[in-house]
Specification:
3 helices, 2 domains, mainly alpha
């Protein structure tokens, strides 16, 4: 009985670390597979002290506006547009010529 327990304990001491190492390697491989072809975005400007600007795609001022000639509206699919508009507004690079998006149609927004 004692020999069986010693053998079992030896097997556990070998299998457990090997299993943990295997799971770590598997996790790293899966993580690398998920990140393939991706790129890291690094801002050119630090906005640490900037006042945040938020444009919501479901704002009633433009929620029902269509995106180009498509059937999609700002409310349903305008997340990228509002994100870019917020980023440009925060970087103080927006003016009437750069973002004619809503400046002329919706004063103050």
């Amino acid at each position: 009985m004692k020999r069986t327990m010693k053998r079992l304990r030896k097997k556990v001491l070998i299998i457990l670390p090997a299993g943990i190492i295997f799971l770590c390697i598997l996790f790293c491989l899966i993580w690398q597979y998920r990140l393939r072809g991706s790129s890291k975005l690094i801002p050119m400007t630090d906005f640490a002290g900037a006042e945040p600007v938020f444009y919501r795609q479901n704002d009633e001022k433009w929620a029902q506006d269509t995106l180009g000639e498509s059937a999609f509206t700002m409310e349903s699919s305008g997340c990228l547009v509002t994100c870019i508009a917020s980023a440009m507004e925060m970087s103080a690079k927006s003016n009437e010529n750069e973002i004619p998006l809503y400046k002329n149609k919706y004063p103050g927004g």
